[in-house]
Amino acid sequence: MYEDQTEVAPTWIPSTPNARFLLGERVSCLAWPEFLQSMEGVSPNLSPEQWRAHILKGEGDEDGLLVTAMAHARCENFVYWLGPKTFVQSWPSLRGVCPRKIFGRRKAFDRIWTALATPSRLPVPPLPAWSTLSSFERRVLVSACNAPQHDEGWIANRLLASAEKVHTALCKLVKLHFLTEANALFSPDPFYLTYQVPRPVGTQSFLVDGVVRTFVNSAEW
Asked: In whole angstroms, what is the distance from residue 199 CA to residue 96 CA?
């Protein structure tokens, strides 16, 4: 049986005013049993700890808990039961196994991630390399995403930072596909919208009319 939710529900403290406005108190509307019921095919006996452990494995099986949650769970409740801090840390990697057919749903999770992880009003690409960025590089990224189509000088003035330091950060962010540059102006790179972790290539062999035929699965989820 599931454990008492008062012992396992994470404390909800939105980290930014944007998140507070976006999520409010709606995240606590579903108790644990109702949250499980909202996702078809999930065992009602699953505990919050078991569910979190499965989610954080990042498995892309179409019938797995992560893909099921991305496809059916209300985003705010998913974040609430995973834990907002855990969501901020893990979502850039977890989202990579999202099937293309539910990319629209993934965008909603991306918006919540931006609100929790950054002070930006506009989307910030939640790519796995986010965890490798320094605090200054994140500030540069947020500045470029929150006010796109500005040059290095504008960003440097905005951050009260040296042009050389901002230039170095921008070059790295472009190389990592967080930003794109056109006519010396910087904006979010749309690469993250279709980003997927390469699917492990697998082969299956079948006997067809006495002939062994081998099929290779697609690298896309």
From this structure: 10
Query: Is residue 178 a contact partner of residue 169, using CB atoms and an 8 Å limit?
Result: no
**Mean pLDDT across the chain:** 85
Q: CA-CA distance, 190 to 71, in Å (whole number)? A: 22
Q: Residues 25, 30, 35, 38: what is their CA dihedral angle, to the nearest 10 degrees?
A: -100
Q: What is the pLDDT of residues 145-181, one digit of tens each?
A: 999 999 999 999 999 999 999 999 999 999 999 999 9
Helix (H) or strand (E) holding 35: helix 32-37
What whole-number distance in Å separates Cα of residue 49 and Cα of residue 64?
A: 16
- Count Cβ atoms below 10 Å from residue 33 Cβ, excluding itself: 12
The whole-model pTM stands at: 0.82
* Cα–Cα distance, 103 to 136 (Å, whole number): 30
pLDDT less than 50: residues of the chain: 1-15
| Local structure of residue 132 (DSSP, 8 states) | G
CA 67 to chain centre: 13
